[in-house]
Amino acid sequence: MAIIQFPEGMKWGTATASYQIEGAVNEGGRGTSIWDTFSKTPGKVVNGDNGDIACDSYHRYEEDVELLTDLGVDVYRFSVAWPRIFPNGTGEVNQEGLEYYHRLVDKLIEKGIEPMCTLYHWDLPQALEDKGGWNNRETIDAFVQYAELMFNEFSGKIKSWLTLNEPWCISFLSNYIGAHAPGNKDLQLATQISHHLLVAHGLTVKKFRNLGIEGKIGFAPNTTWLEPYSNRQEDIDACNREIGWYIEWFMDPVFKGNYPEFMLDWFKKKGVQLEIKDGDMEAIQQRVDFLGINYYTGHIARYKENSGLLDWELVEMNYDRTDIGWPIFPEGFYNVLMRIKESYGDIPIYITENGSCYNDEPENGQVKDNGRISYLQQHLTALSRAIASGVNVKGYITWSLLDNFEWAEGYSMRFGIVHVNYRTLERTKKDSYYWFKQTIANNWFEN
Ligand SMILES: N=NNCCOCCOc1ccc(-c2cn(C[C@@H]3NC[C@@H](O)[C@H]3O)nn2)cc1
Question: Which UniProt keywords apply (predicted)?
């Protein structure tokens, strides 16, 4: 057995997102989002699930904050539903929407919990999608306007901001692979959207600075790791293309002011013609105060000509998998963090999402989710290795506080440390909740 100790001052937290937990989609003046539309499109979401009720956190936020308080977290990462603030994306502001988030934030502050606000966690106002969504540069301006209103409204209350959650999912998963809203399958469109997202991020950071808002701002790319099956250069290059699609494609423009040439060349080979307007790259390269990193899983892979977008194939290594089928691959977490340190230096990092899917149900009021505890132990051990190797980690935020609407998987996949009965909306603390609570209290755990 080993004691895994974390640095003094390490911040601990949990994360959620508006469309996944709030429900109340037709209450409080909220406008329609692309996920309302997508989830009600037949065949898009398992069991035809949608976020109409979800965890009903719009009404039960005080109960959720009690769970956070008992857990002893330092920070709670939540997202704001843009359609609650601007029901049509721009124009008239919905005061009821602002009031809901004031209630939530005030309750967090009352309990001594730091609110970390994600401005965009995928619920784009449908009215903007109807005008081209993120492919329309006007959406960039609309996002900056929305962010400016939030900065001014919550200045002094919210001091940790994230512009975008997982821009790879917003652009490529949602507009090339097509698995998420709005469900396009067009590489040119997706790549251009990824650029507009980065411009929106940069202009929002610039607005944050110009307003002189107290606090820190960053963004939260999602990452993955592919370990080459062999030391053949073709295998190494293939794995670096997939890793680069998540990491360098989004982080090089922010930290270096340019897209990675090897990815640009690859996309050009695939017929992509990226339109970059004068000033875009300068806008993107605004200094961020911290980098959010989301990590779930990785794989072993090797080169395979004309296979998928990036010419690689998985090699089955029979790793244990979580209930959503993702390999348990903690070494990938360490490798991602080391890749980021080597590429971008000592930028302060918050792990803004790391967690696992286990669908254990309550038995006599207890949820024995040993798989999730083991996943947390393995990945927190990998995190401690990265910290020992000099990665500037400031905090760890697990996904998620609650079981919730897991996008295209609907309610079939559970990531929470708290179980939610979707019929009664009853919350039940899982064994992982109690394990995480003890780890937070100790700032260490025993492996
Ligand atoms: N790369 N090629 N893929 C080929 C085919 O993929 C099809 C499906 O792909 C993916 C990839 C990634 C995800 C995903 C989900 N979460 C969990 C959420 N994170 C934000 C928060 O809201 C959590 O709910 N993180 N990532 C889902 C599906």
Answer: Carbohydrate metabolism, Cellulose degradation, Glycosidase, Hydrolase, Polysaccharide degradation
